[in-house]
Request: fold
Amino acid sequence: MMSGPMNEDIRQLLVLQDRDAKASRLEAEVESIDPEREKTRRDSLRAQQVVEQAKQDHMQLEVRRKDLENEAESKREQILKYSQQQLETKKNEEYQALAREIEHVRQAISELEDRELELMEEQEAFKAKLAEANRMAEESKASEARTLSEFDEREKNIEKELDELDDEREELVKTISKKTFAHYERLLDTKEGRVIVGVDHGSCGGCHMKLQTQEIVNAKSGREMVTCANCGRLIYYTREMVMADELD
Ligand SMILES: [Zn+2]
Reply:
C-alpha cells in the first residue's frame, strides 16, 4: 500500500496517546476521591464533636448548679439548728449571737440562690446553642451520607470508563507496529504522556530543540517514524496531517 503523507502508525499512536491521556486524567480523578471522602467524614465528625462539647458544657453547668443547691440546703439546715439553739438558750446574749449568725447564713443562702439563678439562665441560653449544634450535626450527617454515595457512584462510573479505555487500548495496540509501540511505551512515563509530538516551527514540539532538515523532510513524508535526536520523542508533521485529513 502506498502510504499517505502520514503513516498509519502515527495516526493510531495519536489516538492511543489521546486515550492514554484521558485514562491518566481519570485515574487522577479516582485518586482524588479518597481524600475528598476523608474530608467529608472529618467535617461531619467535627459537627458531632461540637454537639458533644455543648452537651458536656451543659452538664458542667448542671453540676455547678447542683453544688450550689446542696450548699444552700446545708445552710438551711444550719439555720434550723441555730433556731433550735435559740429556743434552748436562756441567755439573751447567746440568743442575739445566734440571731446574727442566722442572718449571716441567710445572706449567704441568698447569694447562693442568685448564683443558682444565673446558672439557670446560662443553661437556658445554652439550650438554644445545643439545639443549633444538634441541627448542624444532623444536617452534616445527612449531607455526609449523600456526598459519600455520590463519591461511590462517581468512582464506579470512572472505573467502568477506565475498563472501556483498557479494552480500546488493547485493540489499538494491535494495529501499531511492535517497534513503534515499544518506543511509545518506553517514553510514556518519562515524557508525561507526550510521546508523539508535532513539528513546531522546525523544532521538536516536546523539547523544542531544532530538528535536522532531513528529519523534517522525513516527518513530512510520513513514510518512516522520525524520533527527536535530543529527547527521543516521536515526531509527526502537523500540517501534513491536516492535509491528509482534508484529502480523505
Ligand atoms: Zn525533542
Q: What stands out?
A: Helices lie at 8-88, 92-175, 178-188, 213-221, 238-247. The two ends are 15 Å apart (CA to CA).
